[in-house]
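Changelog-adjacent note: as of this version, every example in the card shows the full chain rather than a window. The one below runs 239 residues end to end.
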Amino acid sequence: MIFVKHTPNHAGVAIYGDCLDFEELYGALHDVVGKENQYVAYQGVRIRVLGFCYELRHALMGNREFEFVENGMDENRMKELAMITPKKNIYIGTHILWPEILFVIMCLSDFILLRQKKNKYPEWDANTAAVHKFQAAVVECLKQVVTEASYKRILNMITHDYTWFYGYTIQYIDILNGKFLAMNKEKRLKSVAIIAKRIAEPDDEYREVREEVLEEALKYNCPADEIQYDWDYPENIQW
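Full-length structure tokens:
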């Protein structure tokens, strides 16, 4: 089972599970976001989700985090079963910044809606269920970080019956990530709900970034999704 917890310095979330959990989520995300050019207006958004998949893959390769979790076995249980087993299971994990994970769970709702239009029985789709389960784990973590009023507002942002992330300027998420990292621990905690609102409800800052990106894309005659801001994430984030 995937579980999510907020990090000590509130920079983001720690996502943990066993290898089967991560394999299931990795495969489900790849399937739900579709193949390249399947959803033309979602190419940049799809790439962003695949960036998260990259983190899951590296966790599976043993390049990220580990945590030992109680598995319910003790001396008495082993004696009853006449077998010797470890008392803890090893979970793998990875860290994701709050703006990034908020964007991922929001845009996944769009991909699920797009998928349902082509699926005769969407309620029985295993990969959709796996993605919903992951979204629920992040939302449950979110509930512990923001106020009840903010939590309800964010749920309304995530839950909708129409798609609206098509053509989204993904570079804006890098800017939000950078600004969020520049905050101190206390301000980050207070800003999670604000970040969610900025992702879900484009404001003047978003529109300015979008105009700049489109101008650069026109200048270099390339897709807007290929424009990159001159921003380097710190090598050692104090999570």
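Structural remarks: The chain has a mean pLDDT of 91.
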